[in-house]
Amino acid sequence: MAAETSLTTEQIWRAVAAERASLVELLRSLPENDWDRASLCDDWRIRDVVGHLVMPMRPDIGWILVNLIRARGNLARLIRDTAIRHAQRRTNQQLLAELRDRIDSRLTPIGTTPADRLMDMLVHGQDIAIPLGITREMPVAAARSALARVWEMGAPFHAREKFSGYRLVATDGEWAEGGGPVIEGSLADLLLLTTGRHTSARLTGAGAAQWISTQRTRR
């Protein structure tokens, strides 16, 4: 079930700018040692997540090829390692300044869309906030747009395939997809779930218990 309305490109970019601005405010108040705490994103500290968010939006082909070779052709490793290296070369305040400078940027990396930038900001904002015990509200319209994008996009999350046999239902917005035992949660929690984050404690429905049991068996 799709939402009655979708965000326009202009609305998406405004939402991206709002997420960046609010994340700057969150990071400004962080003690220095919190920047080195583990994020919700595997292998990244808080500062590495910020490093990823401020990476150049339009890298040249030479940069891509060099770093792809360093990552042995693995795109996920390229994204992980370049963010870590970027963060290592900068102080916390330099990373914060770079994020502040990009608040109104509307550039997109090769092969991505404005909707991907919004999804990235929403998810990584939670990657930072949740481990710190900070409540970071996710706007309903933005979360619904990002969740729809994740569901339709295939790689890297393959959400539609991964949750085949389940029905995902948002409890705070008009969004539902799939068929089978129901997994219910807020738009924010479903977005985190479909992008590989562990939010099982906040999910309900017969499908949630089944999904959690399946994941435990696979570990």
UniProtKB/TrEMBL annotation:
UniProt keyword list: Isomerase, Pyruvate
Entry keyword Transport: no
Domain of life: Bacteria
GO MF annotation list: isomerase activity; metal ion binding
Record has Isomerase as a keyword: yes
Domain Mycothiol-dependent maleylpyruvate isomerase metal-binding: 17-120
Matching Pfam families: MDMPI_N (PF11716)
NCBIfam families, alphabetized: maleylpyruvate isomerase family mycothiol-dependent enzyme
Protein name: Maleylpyruvate isomerase family mycothiol-dependent enzyme
Organism: Nocardia arthritidis
